[in-house]
Amino acid sequence: MSEVLILAGARTPFGTWSHGTTGRGTPGGALKELDPFDLGAAALTGALVRAGRAPDEVGFAAFGNMYQAGAHGCYGARYVTLRAGCPDSVPGVAVNLACGTGLLALRTAAESVARGETDLAAAVGADAPSRLRRDVFVPSFTDLACGKHIAKTAEERAAEKGVTRARMDEWARRSHRRAAENAAALGEEIVPLPALAADDWVLDDPSPERFAAARALFDDAGPMTHANVHGVVDGGAALLLAAPKAARGRALGRLVSTAIVGTAPERMAYAAVPAVFKALESARWRPQDADLWELNETFAAQVLLDLDALGLDPARVNPRGGAIALGHPFGATGLRLVLSLLLELRRRGLRRGVAAISVGGGLGIAACVEAL
User: Fold this and answer.
1) What is the 3-state secondary structure (H, E, C) of 334-348?
2) Sequence spans of domains, the chain
3) Which of 105, 127, 335, 359 lies 20 to 30 Å from 80 when distance is taken between CA atoms?
4) DSSP 3-state of 308
5) Tens digits of per-residue pLDDT, 142-177?
6) pLDDT at 327
7) Regarding the domain with residue range 4-132+143-367, which homologous superfamily does it belong to in the CATH classification?
8) Cα dihedral across residues 341, 28, 224, 139: positive or negative
């Protein structure tokens, strides 16, 4: 298969869902009038503009959406391409790997380029939990295979390894601090929307007192709280992929490898680890060969477990904050990780990066990229 380049990317602001409050304590829902197709189309349009490409140049699109709910969810990929101005002839497919959906969209779009089916493909992801019914959204976090909330499985694994609430809270505070301090750099990823120009979940003052007072996630008052898990937000993201002959000298980076693995559902907090090792093996890299890492912050407990298992230097992980501060718009997150990673590698004059997500049900997905 041929080489696949990542030309450009963009994302919408990530807006606090309509059932939550923003980092300023104001009601969320700034993006509640937009459906996932609107959010995905806005991100795709932004990526096309940044790449200097026209919508009719896209030959294939993969759209990731975790909650393919409602009468029109199954046609989401089609609506994204049409709303972004792509012609009727552009095929779009919908993909779903729950929290790992964005990276699956990237993998799927890359395959169409690598096989020579198209010179230019789009990977798009979006979710809009503000528009979901509670009876659809809430039950989705209970794993039917092991009968437990996925966050509870992470809490149990953290207890086994002695990961304390103090450590979880400090990682969560770090995420908010880094996001707040780097708002300008994060803004380089964003295509502003009329309703929202910047991410609004981020806390300007993540004080120890605020985190100490946070309510426990479960009734047993365990260490996982509403403050040290990801933010629930609406948002979309997109990356444009191309064959080298079609790059026109413009590329953010190169997709080196991807990997998807499965493990026991109750070990979902570790699922990214074997995915990382499989992706590294395909890339012929060692963990120390990667300059920067983006590990999705589904829960602070899960990030810390993965970080310890991989033996990583925390300074090289999530340098501009993660989903605890920015939010986790499910289908868009994997694409946001890769976009953030490539932009940060370029800023620092570094080359290699790894993005990875632990997924409910005991699934893991990872990608290795090189900045150009």
Assistant:
1) HHHHHHHHHHHHHHH
2) 4-132+143-367
3) 359
4) helix
5) 888 899 999 999 999 999 999 999 999 999 999 999
6) 98
7) Thiolase/Chalcone synthase (3.40.47.10)
8) negative
Structure tokens at 226: 């509403």
pLDDT (average), residues 76-90:
96
* Percent of the chain whose predicted confidence (pLDDT) is above 90: 90
Amino acid letter, 262? G
The contacts of residue 25 (CB under 8 Å, 6+ apart) are none
Tokens at residue 53, please?
Answer: 């490409």
Indicate the SS3 state at residue 123: strand
Phi, psi of 311, rounded to the nearest 5 degrees: 65, 40
Cα(324)–Cα(148) distance, rounded to whole angstroms? 22
pLDDT value at 34 more than 90: yes
Angle among Cα 234, 266, 175 to the nearest 5 degrees reads 40
Structure tokens at 14: 């990530």
In degrees and rounded to multiples of 5, residue 127 shows phi and psi of -145, 150
The predicted structure's pLDDT at residue 70: 72
Does residue 25 carry a pLDDT above 70?
Answer: yes
The two structure tokens encoding residue 191 = 């295509």
Task: Write the pLDDT tens digit of every residue in 260-269.
Answer: 999 999 999 9
Q: Are 38 and 275 in contact (CB under 8 A)?
A: no
Distance CA 144, CA 47 (A): 37
Cα separation, 228 vs 165, whole angstroms = 9
Answer whether 53's CB lies under 8 Å from 274's CB.
Answer: no
Alpha-carbon span 203 to 180, nearest angstrom: 7
Nearest to 172 by CA among 249, 228, 101: 228
- For residue 113, what are its two tokens? 């380029």
Q: Bridge-partner residues for 294, per DSSP?
A: 355
Which has the closest alpha carbon to 9: 293, 336, 234, 243?
Answer: 336
CA distances from 69 to 62, 76, 142, 294 (A): 17, 10, 17, 29
